Amino acid sequence: MRKGHSYAILAITLAAAAGLGCSNSTAAGDCTSVCEEAQSRSCTSITNCGQCCSNTDSIAVTAGCTSQRDALRACGTSVDACSVDSSCSSQENALGACVAAFCTSNPTSPACTPPGGC
Questions:
Q1: Helix and strand counts by DSSP (H, E) for the chain
Q2: Phi and psi (nearest 5°) for 23?
Q3: pLDDT, position 101
Q4: What tens digit of pLDDT does each residue of 23-77 get?
Q5: Euclidean distance between the first and final Cα of the chain, in Å?
Q6: What is the pLDDT of residue 10?
Q7: How far apart are CA 15 and CA 118, in angstroms?
Q8: pTM recorded for the entire structure
Q9: How far is CA 69 from CA 3, 42, 111, 116, in A?
Q10: Residue 14 confidence (pLDDT) above 90
């Protein structure tokens, strides 16, 4: 697999998780609850909501993509848990591009590894 392709997969995974409101911060929405709702409705492939939410937040911080994460989080928590992909695609793309740019410049960063649980 080409490195650029693996960064794109990471960015997509991160964006999908962040779109569920992923953060442990209750001010930004309870990621785990939103994620678990999506799981119960079979509309997410995330396997471990708590771990994914925590790891996703760390990656966005390390990559300097918090404003993109926050925009996606705001969108994701304002729509139905199963419509994040269709309703928040521009925010997902912005976060994905931010993470991919960081990982292209910093390929050995731990932030460039797919988040566990996602």
A1: 6, 0
A2: -175, 150
A3: 92
A4: 434 333 467 777 888 889 888 888 888 888 788 788 889 999 999 888 887 887 7
A5: 20
A6: 54
A7: 11
A8: 0.73
A9: 23, 23, 14, 18
A10: no
Three-class secondary structure of residue 91 per DSSP: helix
CA gap 91, 113 in Å, rounded? 21
| Residue at token pair 């990471």 | 10
Cα angle 57, 113, 9; round to 5: 90
Sequence-ordered list of residues with C-beta below 8 angstroms from that of 73, at least 6 positions apart, any chain: 18, 19, 21, 22, 23, 28, 29
Structure tokens at 100: 């991919």
Distance of CA 51 to the CA centre of its chain: 12
Tell me, what amino acid is at 23? Answer: S
Q: Check residue 13 and give its pLDDT.
A: 56
With residue 76 as reference, give the H or E element that holds it.
helix 66-76
Q: Yes or no: say if 9 and 98 are a contact pair by the CB < 8 Å rule.
A: no
* Among the listed residues 64, 41, 48, the one whose alpha carbon sits nearest the alpha carbon of residue 13: 48
Q: Output the six-digit token pair for 43.
A: 């509309």
Residue 1 CB partners (closer than 8 Å, separation 6+): none
